[in-house]
Amino acid sequence: MPSDTPSLRSLRSASIIGTGSYAPDRVMTNADLEKLVETSDEWIQARTGIRERRIAGPEQPTSELAARAAQAAIENAGISPEEIDLIICATCTPDMFFPSTACLVQTKIGAVNAACFDISAACSGFLFGVETARQYIASSTCQTVLVIGADKLSGIVDWTDRNTCVLFGDGAGAAILRHREGSRGILSSRMGSNGKLAEILYIPGGGSAHPANSPTFTENPATMRMNGRETYKHAVTAMVNASQQALADAGVSADDIACFIPHQANLRIIEAIADRLQVSMDRFMVNLDFYGNTSAAAVAIALDEAARSGRFKQGDKILMVVFGGGLTWASTVVEW
Fold it and tell me: Looking at the domain that runs over 6-178, which CATH code has it been given?
C-alpha cells in the first residue's frame, strides 16, 4: 500500500528524533534450551543464527518493557514526557485485552497529555506504527508521537515445541517522531497483508473464537503455532518486494542506503534478502544472535542499537523492513 503520494509530500515531514530500547536481564542461552527440549546449540545456530534470548520475569508485563524503552527514547530525543501528544504501542502480547498497553505505558512514563492506543500487526507492528505516526504528524493533528514495539513472547511460547521455543525472546524498542525543519525524515512506506495465510503463523486460542473459558480452549491453547517452511518462503518474498517498492517510492536505490535494518527473525532470511537485493551483509544490522525474534520489538531494538553505535549519521538513508503474522509486512525508507 503506497503512502508517499503527491498530496502527502506537500504536508509536513516526520523525522525520528530519538530512539530507545530495553531487554530483560535474564539471558536464556541455547544450552539452557537443551535442558527443556531435544535440541542443541549447534542445531539452533545453524538454522537460525540465534545464540541467546532475553526472558522477562513474572513481574515484568509487556507494559513494563515498553515503558523502559520509551523512557530511553524520551531521554535520547531530549524532550519531556508531557510533550508527547500520542502513544502508539505495537504488540501482540498486551498486558490485558483492555485497557490498551499504551494507556498503561502513559501512566508509567508520565505522558499525561497523550492519547493512547495499541495496534496489532505481530512482528510488523512497529513499522505499521511509524507510518501511522507519520500520518498524524503530516496532517498536524499531532506534534510529537511515541511509537513502541514491545512483546513478551515467552508468555505465549509452547516450551515443549522445539521448532518454535528456540526462536523467540522478550524486549521493547521505541522511537520519538516529530517534524524537524530541514529534514525530509520518512521518505516512503509500503505496507501489506494477506489474511488468507493467517494460519501459517498464529495463536489459535484465547480470543473470541476459542476463549479461555470454552470447551475448545484445551485443543486451541493460547500458544504460538507456526509453519516454519511456509513462513520462511513468504517472509523472504514479501520483504524483498516491500523493500524494492519502498526504494522506488523514495526515488532511491539500494546503493543509496547506508544501513538496512531487517526484522530479526532468522539469519537465513536476512541473508536471502541481502542476496536478492544484491547488497553485502555488512550493510545489514543484525543482532538476533543476542535477542532472538522479539516480534514488534525486533526492528525497533535493532534501530536503536544501530543509531547508538554509529552505523549511520544524520542525512544518511536507512531502510527498515519487517514481516509477521497476519500475514503482514512493511518497509520504510528514512532520511536520518
Answer: 3.40.47.10
| Separation of alpha carbons 302 and 172, rounded Å | 10
- Three cell numbers, residue 222: 493460547
Q: What are the residue numbers of the active site?
A: 123, 263, 293
**What pTM was estimated for this model as a whole?**
0.94
H helix intervals, 52-165:
62-77, 101-109, 125-138, 162-165
Nearest Cα neighbor of 72 from 304, 321, 330, 329 is 304
Return the amino acid letter for 198: A
Q: State the Cα–Cα distance between residues 65 and 69, nearest whole angstrom.
A: 6
- Taking Cα atoms as reference points, which of 335, 66, 17 lies closest to residue 176? 17
pLDDT in tens, 273-332: 999 999 999 999 999 999 999 999 999 999 999 999 999 999 999 999 999 999 999 999
* CATH fold of the domain at 186-335: Peroxisomal Thiolase; Chain A, domain 1 (3.40.47)
Exposure pattern of 173-200 as b/e (b: 16+ CB <10 Å)? bbbbbbbeeebbbbbbbbbbbeeebeeb
